[in-house]
Design brief:
CATH topology of the largest domain: Aminopeptidase
Number of helices: 13
Structural class: alpha/beta
CATH architecture of the largest domain: 3-Layer(aba) Sandwich
Bound molecules: zinc ion
Radius of gyration: 22 Å
Amino acid sequence: MTPIAAPATLPRVICDHHAPRPGPTLIAVGGLHGNEPAGILASEALSRRLHNSGGLACGRFVALRGNLSALAVDPEEPSNNPRYLAHDLNRLFREDDTDRTPDHAQRDALRDALAAIEGERTGPVYLLDLHTTSSDSPPFIAVEDSLPARRFAERFALPLILGIEEDLHGLLMDEATARLGAVALTVEGGRHDSPNAVRTLEAVLCIALESLGLTERSWADCFDGREPLEITRAAASRHAHRVYDIRHREPVSALPYEPDPSAEPFDRVRARRTRIAVQEGSDLLSAESGLLFMPNKQRDIRVGDDAYFVVRRVGWIWLRLSAWVRLRPGLHALLPRILPGVRRRRDHPHDLLVDPEIAAVLRREIFHLLGYRLVRFETTPGVSPVRRLARAVALSIHATVVIARNLISRGSTDDAHEAGDAEWIVSRHTLDRAAHGPD
Ligand SMILES: [Zn+2]
């Protein structure tokens, strides 16, 4: 049932601390979802401590409320609040969505607030979008996989999830990177109603202030003598410092949708074997093998919401190698020549057009390694592992021939082309491009 829109009476700004000395700006956003007050409570707690301890050494820390319309339904009892009124605010930050619902009005107001803060910057801008989860998950950070965002995220000792922006469009995190040039992270502090979630998110904010040089004080007194990093590390337990890559996202496609109570985050799941939920009376089985991630256990589940994700662990060798190759500008210029089925996109120097067959096979392993994300593609129906392997072998042989031919003939595959309907577009991460200048 869609709740009735409430007047937005809450103030947008939770707190705003300036130091006389210039420096980085840290923006925290809490309550982008109406039923997730933990980020607001963490920001308020930290703000009180800053007031009592003489404030910042440099730069600015400003915290904002997210969806005021959803938060204002019952400010006294946040657990009564809806996640959103009609549209998930954390999917609305896209240029092609021009609806005018109360959630869209919140998006526009938040955009204006962020632009105003960005306009007053005296250094780099960082954004932490603070959330909580419906299931009892360890805290984690989701990040658009650019090298600056990866470096920032590593400071929190929380598990790091790469690639979420390919499956979820219109995230605030994306908006902050694209419009503000900010290094932006989505932080999930734990289950909505867990007191530990507020504590974890406050520790995350303390680590951010400290690592960006905004404060020089110790925060151990906030956490009973423990450093904030000890708090996040303990909350993440065995997942601390681990990196995972999204392999699959499944949307809710029909109602009623009853999550399987035994399906917990980071449980091992097997393709077509593990039950995640009962959807419209039938078992919904995992589409991929890996680890279950963010199984949807919200009270109010709607068609189109995320049902679940599957992630897999990423090894440190892959991470180091990808950091190395992304900083080789000459390599990006060569890609249309050395990869089969890949061409440069006309008037978009950082985009490539990719044959869908090739993209399906190379998507995770090659394009992510090189620092590209899919920005437009058609999903292909499930392909059996045997057929996928056969196709990969055939493409590898084809690739070798094409590479050899192109190198000998200095081929013409890098001719500029406009995107055809059948082609996938992959684009280099904005922050990676900025990291080593023009290429
Ligand atoms: Zn959320």
